[in-house]
Amino acid sequence: MGLMIDIKKQYKDFTLEVNFDNRGSRLGIIGASGSGKSMLLKCLAGIITPDEGKIILNGRPLFDSVQGINVKPQRRKIGYLFQNYALFPHMTVAENIGIGLPKADKDQMAKILKIMDRFHLTALSEKYPRQISGGQQQRVALARCMILEPEILLLDEPFSALDDHLKDHLQKEVMDYLSDFNGDVVLVSHSRDEIYRMSDSLMVMEHGKSSFMGTTHEAFKSPKYKYVAKLTGCKNFSDLEDDGTFYFAKSWGLQYPKTQFLDVPKYLGIRAHDFIVHHELIEMPSNRLLRGKVLRTVEDIFELTFYIKPLHPSVSEDAEVVFKIAKSKWENRKIPDALILEIPLEHLIPLYA
Ligand code: ADP
Ligand code: MG
What we know:
Elements: E1 3-10, E2 15-22, E3 26-31, H1 37-45, E4 52-57, E5 60-64, E6 69-70, E7 78-81, H2 93-98, H3 108-118, H4 134-146, E8 152-156, H5 164-178, E9 184-189, H6 192-198, E10 201-206, E11 209-215, H7 216-221, H8 226-231, E12 236-242, E13 246-249, E14 254-257, E15 267-270, E16 276-278, E17 289-299, E18 303-310, E19 321-326, H9 327-330, E20 338-342, E21 349-351
Parallel strand pairs: 3-9, 3-10, 7-8, 8-9
Antiparallel strand pairs: 1-2, 1-4, 4-5, 5-6, 10-11, 12-13, 12-15, 13-14, 15-21, 16-20, 17-18, 17-20, 18-19
Magnesium ion binds near residues 37, 38 and 157.
């Protein structure tokens, strides 16, 4: 069961080409703005018709260009939470929630009351969208989806309009509301934190093309490809040059024996939080230590960020390494002119093009 999709849609300046087979319960789709995430969800929901291909949900074909199948949006059993919630401003909370139910449904009122109770909206039932908060509007939009008992729920950047504090709270709340939902969830976001917290498996969209990455936690731990590493928040990359017996990490000025890697990576990556800082010189193999000049620092509430130029003659002028450390660990030290950073081998990420 699950969701199988293999579609193509061509516009003048943009081509969507998506192919995946998801059996996990929660699929996260991450991609930069404009990569085609919303367009993909619209194809799933039946709002956009692909040029060719098929979409199969739990064994039921929703779209099949060869067989001429194109199930209407209202019959797809797909819940779609839009980026901006799209509530009707002239309808009350209760009316908004019931809007998708068939007019002839005798249990309409009972269903609305039940879902309002479950989503803690009963007290707001007669309010209009403008009279309630952004978080409450989101809950109404979610209730409006869930009342139709969808087989799959599509969430399009559901938290992007909210401030950080509210976001953390609502992510948890939505997860709680969805915990007794048996269907699949597809969550689209450009926020790596959101995807990491809320999805089991990961798909990456880039310029309209999809790549399936396996489980979310594994993909964040070992991203494999440079563009995936970037999307998961990795800040430091170096090209690898083949020196015969060694690989030379050009942006860092460090050499690695070829035997260190199973195959032939094109880049190395290391996350800004994964360095270990040494405040005095220590004995260690030279390829584990990166010495650099501190170019500038940025101080946040709980964290310090250092921008560092590696001190190695063959490192290019514009090479820059980003190092982040919790202020509690930095312990009020003065900002030095130079730093010694250890690169723990277990945090070195071999990457491919
Ligand atoms: P995302 O949701 O990942 O930010 P979208 O799916 O909204 O991206 O858009 C992907 C690309 O397709 C963008 O370049 C956008 O300009 C283009 N696009 C979106 N809708 C249409 C359309 N109806 N016709 C032509 N191009 C579109
Ligand atoms: Mg979008």
